Amino acid sequence: MKLIVGLGNPGSEYYLTRHNAGFLAIQYFCEYLGVSLKPGRGDWYGIELKHKGEKFYIMKPTTFMNASGNAVLDFVNKKKINLSDILIVYDDFQLPLGTIRIRAKGSDGGHKGLASVIYSLNSLEFPRMRIGIGTGECVSMDNYTDFVLSKFSEDELEKMKSLMPYIKDAILCFIDEGIYSAMNKFNKNFFEPEENKSL
Q1: Domain containing residue 99: CATH number
Q2: Number of folded domains in the chain?
Q3: Which of 2, 18, 19, 101 does the annotation list as catalytic?
């Protein structure tokens, strides 16, 4: 049974910040499916659904980003989910806006939320989807926190809205076909002109 997790910070003040790209993706996915997450018996909101006859879960932690792993571990233990069936959806400031990058496993790449999940699960062996939130300009680690907690501009929000259908399709592909099919079909920058992709 698959589990889709979006990472972010709770609270209206963080709603449209870059660091909440994972929450925004989950919100769009739920709106597409016509459902709403419900409070769980733990630090998370979640729901159980079916797609093409297969059950899957959607959840988001209600902890702050840096403690996301506590909620994910609690949910995984209660629902008895295999690590290979988890897809963690989160932001990446090192990838330009418009980029989706899916991997079957790996390190945290400096992302505090993913680091918390890795620590709690005691494993690097679970799928993840990174959503690019970068502007193309270099962001130093000293300015990292200010950048990821800044809000998207109106133009950037429009681009994020344009990206959401691809994120939704990538999640459905993971649920239906698995991680490697999702990687093959959706690892790209959807705003980059086709002629530049072969350069």
Answers
A1: 3.40.50.1470
A2: 1
A3: 19
**Rounded CA gap, 167 and 145, in Å?**
25
Give the pTM: 0.93
CB 75 within 8 A of CB 83: no
Domain span at residue 19? 2-196
Residue 46: CB partners within 8 Å, gap ≥ 6? 37, 38, 40, 57, 58, 59, 60, 75
pLDDT per residue of the chain (199 residues) written in tens, 0 to 9? 999 999 999 999 999 999 999 999 999 999 999 999 999 999 999 999 998 888 999 999 999 999 999 999 999 999 999 999 999 999 999 899 999 999 999 999 989 999 999 999 999 999 999 999 988 666 666 677 888 899 999 999 999 999 999 999 999 999 999 999 999 999 999 987 655 554 4
Burial class (CB in 10 A: 0-12, 13-18, 19+), 56: buried
Active-site residue 51, yes or no?
A: no
